[in-house]
Amino acid sequence: MSGRSSGSTMIVGSTPNPSLVATNLAYCNPSHLQSFAVPGTSHHYALIAEALDLFVITKLYMLIFQFVHICFLNSYYTAHDSMENGKIGLNAIQRRHARVSNGDSISVIRFAPPDDFNRTMLTLELEFVKKGTKEEYVDAVRLAQHIQDRFANQITNQREGASSNLFKHKEFNLESLGIGGLSDEFGDIFRRAFASRVLPPHVTSKLGIKHVKGMLLYGPPDGVEALNNVLLIGMTNRKDMLDEALLSYLMLHLHIFGGILLDHLSVNKGLSLSNAAARSKNYSGAELEGVVKSAVSYALHRQLNLEYLSEPVDEEDIKVTMDDFLNALHEILPAFGASMDDLERCRLNGIVEFGGRHAHIFKRTMLLAEQVKVSRGSPLVTCLLEGPSGSGKTAMASSVGISSDFPYVKIVSAESMIGLSESTKCAQIVKVFEDAYKSPLSYLMILKGCLNMLQ
Ligand SMILES: Nc1ncnc2c1ncn2[C@@H]1O[C@H](COP(=O)(O)OP(=O)(O)OP(=O)(O)O)[C@@H](O)[C@H]1O
């Protein structure tokens, strides 16, 4: 593009005075103004956030646009005494379009329009700055007239907002890439790994979102052929832990490290954090972090327009709901202990109390769990439930596990070890016990078929 000159980096700040917000001007210290002067004119033009390749040039007297808050991607420059030297004052919408937040550095260069810099076409899209619930109407005829008046003789050049090259294609057609049957997986990968990258950095930083840094794809050997145009990179700094990670995240395609604070999140009114916490039994701190990140990825994904990824996202609309948390809890499974789902699966149709004896056994078993909780003298309590097949032993034990509220509950079943060698089975059982000792309160359910192995 012609007409650019060398520029500088400035620190983004707010418009110096709220009454100036609607002027659509950018503000700088008077001492800086001269560096943006267009030779031979009384104008000062600046090209802001050059990397985005977006700019609009307007003349001073037309900039005060009161009818609607239409904001262009770059702004005319004016000087204001209260702006610190080296700072550029932008209003919230200018910052959003330039994809910056207060305190960010931004490239600002003088722009001198070339002689043949004429407008050929201008497309305007009208949108309310804040989406309210009440209906508001705009008189289209008045608006059109207003725009015509305001923009008469203006020079405007605006390119479509460019997003990362990665998303230049509006549609992700996997089959055209020779990959079939993996739409769900790619949907997950997009939601977890890329959705946050589509958002402007100031939105992600405000929400405390860190990008997913690692991704592990796995599958049977044939899958490698099917994914021959996908590059897989696995990294670990704890090689000894790798097997553990694979075992514990078998349902996941992404292994994520990073931090996020719940405080930063906008949560929906329907979301009960205590309810979410109650459902995250057995989760370690790192796993909870993964759950929160996964929940956020659902909330972000909802806001993205996959047809047009460069469309600005209203950060106010990004709300994490209870459903997001529930989906996240299904996606991120705890490495240790059994999930509530596993226990519930052992008593799928609930529990029917079919007599005094049944109630008595349940009460006795619960008492044993209580004994482990309160008595220092009984660190280990064992109990054998005996009865014919289908009499409800597993259902009873899982009910006790749920009611005991122990942080570590693990089911050791023959089904989970099908196909494993004897030595691997033994190693797994040893590990279950080792992990149990790490937890302050542990409840192990050893199902029939595994008892002999304990010896
Ligand atoms: N009190 C109950 N109320 C409702 N359903 C029950 C009850 N007890 C057991 N069931 C159901 O009966 C079925 C068999 O129960 P369960 O698997 O607990 O038996 P089990 O004694 O462990 O059998 P096995 O010795 O073959 O492992 C399950 O579907 C379970 O949900």
TrEMBL record:
Required for vesicle-mediated transport. Catalyzes the fusion of transport vesicles within the Golgi cisternae. Is also required for transport from the endoplasmic reticulum to the Golgi stack. Seems to function as a fusion protein required for the delivery of cargo proteins to all compartments of the Golgi stack independent of vesicle origin. Its cofactor is Mg(2+). This is Vesicle-fusing ATPase. InterPro entries: AAA_lid_3 (IPR041569), Asp_de-COase-like_dom_sf (IPR009010), P-loop_NTPase (IPR027417), Vesicle-fus_ATPase (IPR039812). Residues 272-305 form the AAA ATPase AAA+ lid domain. It catalyses: ATP + H2O = ADP + phosphate + H(+). Pfam families: AAA_lid_3 (PF17862). Keywords: ATP-binding, Cytoplasm, ER-Golgi transport, Hydrolase, Magnesium, Metal-binding, Nucleotide-binding, Protein transport, Transport. Binds 1 Mg(2+) ion per subunit. One of its GO terms (molecular function) is metal ion binding. The keyword Amino-acid biosynthesis does not apply. Its EC number is 3.6.4.6. It comes from Heracleum sosnowskyi. It is an enzyme of class 3 (hydrolase). It is found in: Cytoplasm. One of its GO terms (biological process) is SNARE complex disassembly. One of its GO terms (cellular component) is Golgi stack. Belongs to the AAA ATPase family.
